[in-house]
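Collaboration report, partner site 2.

Our partner group contributed sequences for two proteins of shared interest, and the home lab folded both. The records are reproduced in the order in which they were received, starting with the first partner submission.
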Amino acid sequence: MTYYSLSDYLKKTFGTKVYKISLSTGCTCPTRDGTKGFGGCTFCSAGGSGDFAAAPEDISIQIQKAKLRVDAKFPKKTPVQERKYIAYFQSFTNTYAPVNVLKPMFMKAILQPEIAALSIGTRPDCLPDEMIDMLSELNKIKPVWIELGLQTVHEDTARSIRRGYELSAFESAYSKLKTQGLTVIVHVILGLPGETHDDMLETVRYLSRLVPVLDGIKLQMLHILEGTALGEEYKLHPFHVFSLEEYCSLIADCLKLIPAQTVVHRLTGDGPKRLLIAPLWSGNKKLVLNTLHSYLRQV
């Protein structure tokens, strides 16, 4: 089975290997600061889905430190001056602050010559018009990707994980972002409590029918982590989690639905091993990816 992978897209777009470096704006989330709740989404750790991101300090310093962490991945023959990176603002909700606070941070990153693009993780309900206008301005300098944490299209599940917004908020934000010419990548979590195989496919099917066609999708396996509300729920009332074989089969079914031009940014994901409660097999990233790729070659 073939699909449009992120590595293929990056080579086609930038002509070379490009690696993400995780940065932080220092923003929080409306489900954490009391605006829409406290504690965040039930699956979200204290790191805000950015457990490997940089500490919130000056962006230039963050970039330099983050580059050192990923430089070993480049082919040895790649000169330092030719290495390219995507500045990934990952932790929490990176548009949850005034434009005049965020614009200097994003501008400082995008003007770095080694930065090929910005990727900004956020929520659909944290994109007021003035924020989208600012992101559109930046997009004229270098590509700007907006990563939206949708997770599921099912409202009952969304309420149970304390997502804090309805599907209509996603639809409105998606339309506005695409009207402004921004690249949109949507995060989906597979394995949320109470969702069936068909429920998960319905989320992917919905995204596959979006107009304009979705630019990118991240398929993220649910990691149950220590220190989260979901982790406490699982300890008290364990629910089904995927076996590796079940997950491979689900991913294959998802990929069958995704349009050929939509970039698949992720087939699984990393949960910090020190916090991982379940599924424990997901802590072996090499095993997971090798098994997934082997399975997909056979279907």
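Second partner submission, folded after the first:
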Amino acid sequence: MGERLLTIKDLSTHFFTHAGVVKAVNGVSFTLDRGETIGIVGESGSGKTVAAMSLMRLIPDPPGKVVEGSLMLGDRDLRTISDDEMRGVRGNDIAMIFQDPMTSLNPVMKVGKQIAEAITLHQDKGKREAWQMAAKLLARVGIPDADKRVDQYPFEFSGGMRQRAMIAMAISCNPDVLIADEPTTALDVTIQAQIIDVVREMQAQFDSGVILITHDLGVIAEISDKVMVMYGGRTVEYGPVDEIFYNAHHPYTWGLLASLPRLDESEKTRLTPILGQPPNLITLPAGCPFTARCPYRREECRDKWPAHEAVGPDHGVHCWIPVEERVAIRAGLPHFKEPAA
């Protein structure tokens, strides 16, 4: 086991609106070690990005607020340190690649200047040296003609190049923790693979811990060591990537895997959708938020949140269905097959 970088325990983030309290994240816990990648997966609205923004202390207050939990970066609780200390943490210790680079990059500022500003803010570098470092960073993440591109604006970059520029900015100060929020969304498959390779190379170079937020299970399978499955603001299952793909225990995880196309199936094989709609985060049930959509639900599912149940080494689930019954149900599902030898 590597050095423990992050320990998140019982994180809850709510938004207080005129319509009611939006319980975006409810009691989420996980850890991250140096050199490790944890994938956070779930539908839109499951709380993935809010959990990451809470960690960065970027939740707008009002209306949002972290109402419970501890966010430990080493021996520092990010909930209690001062705003000045937190500004030093962002970009330097924890960096984030945001989902849409066009809304994260300043459209009227040259890309090189934006990266250089991050360098001068956290490192003892002059403007000229920071500019030169920005050009080297763009080259390092695979942008051609970096010496020229550094002097261009974001609108002159393609979508994949803007995402690479965001990665260059994120790694400019060699962060211990890198959060990648949907880094491959809206990119074609070839560019997606290149972005994943860049993230892998940066992680290997700096031995960073990576939090990968995505709804793409293919990306999760390729890059993650551990997986946290979120639904309705809660963690419903958590474990090593192979356990989640081949030994999943929660009906929601089964639904996600059933909706994933497989290369070993006939092209005529239909995907199995998860019926119903995601829950209203203002009127969540007291129990499991997946209850209304779960084909195996029972009476207690709506009334009480199930306790954490360990089903393997570092593999846990929150589900009222007895483990023997879950194993029998999963064995009858057509999309669950043993991994190839």
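Feedback sent to the partner group on the second submission included the following. The radius of gyration is 21 Å. The first strand starts at residue 4 and ends at 17.
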